[in-house]
Structures are given as structure tokens and as C-alpha cells.
Amino acid sequence: MIGPLFLALAWWMLYWSPRADIPRLETAAVPRERFAAEARRRPMGSPPAAIMAGYSHPCNECHQLFQAPLEERRILMQHTHIALNHGLNKHCFNCHDRENRERLRLNDGTLLEFNEVPRLCSQCHGTVFRDWERGTHGKTMGSWDASSGLQHRLGCNDCHDPHAPAYPPIEPLPGPRTLRMGDQAEGAHAGHRRSPLGQWSQSGAAPPDMANPEGGHR
Amino acid sequence: MTLRIWEGRSFGEPEPGPSMSRRSFLRGGTAMAGGLAAMAAALSPLRELSGDDLPSVEQFLQKHYKEMTPRDMEAALERIRGEVEKRYGVRPEIRDIKPRAGVEFVYALNLSRCIGCRRCVHACVNENNQSRDPEIQYIRVLEMPRGTLDLEKGNHHYERPTVPDADHFYMPVQCHQCANPPCVKVCPVEATWQEPDGIVVIDYDWCIGCRYCEAACPYWARRFNFTRPTIPADRLNPEMSYLSNRPRPKGVMEKCHFCLHRTREGRLPACLEACPTGARKFGNVLDPDSEVSQILRTKRVLVLKEEVGTLPRFFYYFDERYPRSAEPAPAPPPAEAPA
Fold it and tell me: What's the domain count of chain B?
């Protein structure tokens, strides 16, 4: 009598009993270029050159002909793509050389190649330069092993726009939809302030006010 | 066939006809139905088992990682090559990469620079062949109110048009590769252990999926494969190693391994290379001139949950000040008081 019971059980288990569904939420595929391993920007060469109508023009091709206007009351007629947003440093010739536009100029008059930018920036940004030299500021590519010869530390203008050095805010990639962080299907856009442990999302209590947290100073 | 229930007669005494009373029949029947139901419930996970989830004979007979000879390892790698090729149509370049002598890896993350853009999360998923459905990610980015370090207020699910938000800071958390790892201590089968270069690894063929390590980890860094991972074949990273990013079977744990297939060959972890701000730093802490040694020496360094005594190899640090881009917008000038 027990035998047929087990057979019936096996049949029920295989075909009829409700299946425990594992919640699955497919992630939108993020294109690879959005997390590419590369420098944030590509500076112009050293010396820089303007590309016009497919031809490369060195800076001095124009700047030997045209006299630089006065620094005060300056409105850019050329180079209009430059958004100058560098704090108090808003004069071209604080960094560029007036005579030779293919060089940069330190405060003491020393001319620098364009690929020596960190020396130029270090005149004002001393603590950051110190950190960069140690390797505690900035991005390192290639290898963690300095002795391998593959390590390449990016320069200031590989990440920062020299004319507007603050990082512009960027769009974040999609957030997690992992199983342990709770079912995101409902309310993924409504109240997305969830505890990692899902405390208030499960108990139904109101989430804490993230904008005005209790405790801590701002 | 009748079901007889012994009712306390001594042996040899003649049976007085059909022996079962209505009461004992109901009692016995209920007990049996209950038992069968319990058994069905206990066995029901077997229904989810498909042939692909069962280990092959070679995998079943495979030895523990530390007991494998080079020939055993080559056989195991060849088996994995075949399995991956069969499932994804890609012949992987899988190796077993050993740790380097004189190297102990340490990670450092600059909380002043992290903008919470989640590039690291997705670069990691792409590099390490994590399941896309259901989703498994090794890195969690917490958004926390500026000025606090209260993980209870951390939010994974921020959805903003742009980051960083001026009122928040961002803290990515992943495996801390602890020097005193609680996850390793609780593993009942020694499927996870600490390598000489400090990386805590998992042998996916030895793990029994008990999830003790997941419970033991104070950083919530371990992930369990509830189902067989699904990875689009065109996104499979064919550069694999045995202990790191080869595709995992159903029912095993996985976690961050500092991209050991990259870092043991001198390269940098995928999350670091994807970071647009340079907030992530990686290197050999035994080299006094390495970037991470400089950070530990000169920066204000924070260890997450220091009080639990796990001695992480993952450090958070701060700069002297926040970058200007992360500062709150200046308050509007006060309205002029009426004269």
C-alpha cells in the first residue's frame, strides 16, 4: 500500500505541485563603452594643433599674425568651444605663453611643453600635486607594479578640462536588481530608499528621511 | 493487503478478527499523510534539478584544489573548457594562476573622490562573468547622507539623472579580503581559503552551497547562485582562471577576488580601470613605494567595521577636502529687508 502512495507522490511532485519561483529580474545590458577602461578625456597633443577642414594647423600659424588682445574685458571670438570656468584663474596668459602659443608658461617665465602640464598646475594646486606624485591622487593605468614598466599615471588634463577643471556630474549606470536587495519590481521608482536589510520595506514603516537624517552633522 | 496496527497483545495470542479500530485507522492514516507531505516538501527542491546542474563524473571525482597535481588541474581545466564551449559556444582561455611571492594585495578607495556612478559595478560584472538574470553583482554602492557614516541610512537604489548629489556621499563596498576572514572559518568543507597574496578564493567545484560564509561576512560581500547563472554568450569574458571568473554552476557561492586572473599578472582590477575619477587604488602593500603603501602612510584611512576584528585589506581614505564639484550649491543671497 505504501508503494503506490510514493508513486503518486512522485508523480505529483514532478507535474502538479506548485513550484517555488525564484524571482528573476533581467538587467538591461549596459554597453561596454559606458565603463571602458580609458582616460576620461583626451587632451590635445603636445604641441596642440587645431584640426580645420581635415588639416592640422599649429597654433602659431594664426597667432603669429594676430596680436593677442588685452586680457581685461576679454570675450573669446575664436575658440568659442572653451567654457572658462576655472575659479579665479580666468586669464589666458596665466598659463599660455603670449608669444609662443605652442608652449605653456610658468609664473617665473619658464616655458613648458604641453605634456608637462602637472608642473604648471602644481603652482597653485600644491597639495593635489603632492598627492599625484605619490600616487594617491589621480588614475593609474596599466599595472599596479611600478617595476614592470607598464604603469602609466594619467596627467592632470587626462581627466580634468584645464579650462573647466571641476568634474561635471555624470549619469550613473543602472542600480542593482539583485535578489537579496528585495523585490524591485514594485516601487522601483516610487520609494527607492531601502535599507540593505529591507527593514522598513518589509515592515511597512515609513523609510527614514534621507535628506534630513537624524544625528550626524552636515 | 491490510494494514495491521499492533495493539498490545502478547506474541502468539490469536488475532481477534480484523484488528484495526476506526480511531487507530484515522490516527495512523493522518500520521502517514502528514509524514508524506513533509517528505514531499523536503524533497521538492529536487524537482528543480535538471541534468545540466548535476556534476559530471569527472567533476564529482575531482580532488580539492590544494590536493590537485598539475596533471589533475590540467584535466579539470580541459573539462571546464569543454563545458563552457558547449554552453556558450566560446572556447575560453582558462588557466590556474598561482600567487606571486612577495606580494600582498591591498585595495584603497578614496571616499572624497567617489561619485557613485556605478561604472565599477558593471565593469566587474562584465569582467567576471556574473549572472545577469538573476543579477549578481560583487560591488554595492551605498549612497549616504553627507556627514554621516551610518550604513543603516545607506541606499543602494538611488536613481538620479546625474551623480554626485551634493547632499550625499558614496561608498562602494565589496569583498574586503580580510586577513582574519570569518567566511573562511565557517566553511564546513574548506571550499574557501586565503591565498598567500591575501585573496580569499572559492573553489566552485568544492563548494556545497550551505551559505554559512554569506551569513558570516560582515561586509555582505558573498553572493549565492540560486539558479544557474545566465550570461549572454556575446558578453562572456573568455579570459578565465580556475579560482576567479570561470562560469559558476548553480548552488555555489561567489564573490570578489580582486580580479586575480588580472592582478596576479600585474594588471589592475577591472573596477579600478573603469573608475572615471581615480578613486580606486590597488597595489602591493609589501612594496613601500607602492601607491597603496603611500596612502596607508599619508592619508586618513578608515576601515569599515573595524570593531569586528576582520583586519580587511580594503581601506577607505579621504582627501583634505571635498572636490569643489561635490560641494553644495551656495545659498541664494538673502532677500533685501524692506526699508
Answer: 1
Cell of B2: 491490510
Across the interface, do A216 and B148 touch by the CB < 8 Å criterion? yes
Where do the structural domains in chain A lie, given as residue ranges?
A: 86-159
Q: Domain span at residue B252?
A: 117-257
Residue A6 is predicted with a pLDDT of 82
- Hey, are the CB atoms on A139 and B278 less than 8 Å from each other? yes
Q: Please check whether residue B162 lies inside any domain of the structure.
A: yes
What is B98-161 written as a DSSP string? PPPTT--EEEEEETTT-----HHHHHHHHHTT--BTTB--S-EEEEEETT---GGG-BS----S
**pLDDT tens digits, B79-92:** 999 999 999 999 99
Mutate to test the interface with A, among B43, B100, B119 (most CBs of A within 10 A): B119
Query: For residue B157, is it within any domain?
Result: yes
Q: What is the mean pLDDT of each run of 10 residues along chain A (218 residues)?
A: 80 70 68 87 82 83 78 70 84 88 92 92 92 92 92 92 89 79 44 41 44 41
Residue A187 pLDDT: 42
**Is the distance from CB of B270 to CB of B124 less than 8 angstroms?**
yes
